[in-house]
Amino acid sequence: MSDVDAAVTRAHRGEWARVVAALTRRFGDLDIAEEAAAEAFATAVERWPADGVPPNPGAWLTTTANRKAIDRIRRESKRDDKQKEARLLYDEDPPEPLGAIDDERLRLIFTCCHPALAMETRVALTLRMVGGLTVAEIARAFLVQEPAMGRRITRAKDKIKAARIPYRVPSAEDLPSRVSGVLAVLFLVFNEGYLASGPDTDPVRQDLTAEAIRLTRVIRALLPDDGEVAGLLALMLLTEARRTARVSAGGELVTLDEQDRGAWDASLIAEGHRLVRERLAAGVAPGRYQLLAAINAVHTYARDIRDTDWSQIVALYDQLARIDPSPIVALNRAIAVAELDGPDVALAAVERLEDRLAGYHAYHATRADLLRRLGRSQQARAAYDQAIALAGNTAETAYLSRRRDQLGRS
Predict the structure, then answer these.
(1) 49 within some domain
(2) H or E stretch including 370?
(3) Where's the RNA polymerase sigma-70 region domain (predicted)?
(4) What percent of the chain has pLDDT over 90?
């Protein structure tokens, strides 16, 4: 990758959300903001190799995107819209009172996470508009086909326009009731960064994990008594602490049982454990993120994989299944059950999920590992093949391929 290509990539990761947010605030239209931002980055790809990378890439991209947006409005405007067009071109943006959060990207998140939209639509739209993920990456996160996800995002933008959903942060009084949708967004953004689903991206995208953690810290500062905000932050920190040990120097996924625990970030683990202890001391029934954080706390307390308290992990998954009876939770519980009751018991639980998880690579990867442990090599190989075909992450594909090839050929 050339220096200019690297600069464009950095700018996209660091500036995409800011550019989209600035345009959305000025023009009040997500379609215009997204398309103009995309055109500005395309222009950068064309011009920066010849002109050089500008001293302030973000300002250059925002200015270019503004011009692209105005050009589009000019093309689409009718003659009786000239007065409105002139105001867009020459008027200053009117001052606006500050909301509960003075951050343009969070303003954009709350617009995308408006209750008028279905939960999955809020998450998908925010991943696209704020996270800058491609439609293909978002589709993988939702386990749906790419064209269907594209239509979902388009309908969401149309609904925001038709319903005139305001581009603002909720008032302090409304903020708690609106935060659950934002947490769901940040969780998926973090997951996409921690183990990126795209085959043409880095297997770990620290820009996304760092942004998800940053925004969660902001919300935590605003809602210090919200247990789920604290739980999500703890979950992210305990997961991020293991990031550098997750991928080998050769670009292959390193599973939890094989990771060098000495390479984990002790300061992030300490902060995550502190948050988990604070929530336990609060004496309030934990929510989904708090339980996931507690599970990760048990993992990170163990100095060696053999010291892991699997019975406590299974008990926490039992609690989680009562409030989130999803097949993903059941799959992860089965992985823990394998350590307590053996791979045969776990395999029976996993295979009951086939109808619901047939398109999910982790289902096939888990089944392959259990079959391998039971000595059923031929079936394990077939399951690894299915997992490899569905996995998008390059590090994960390399790991699954090695495990499959270790089985030999029957």
Answers:
(1) yes
(2) helix 361-373
(3) 18-78
(4) 54
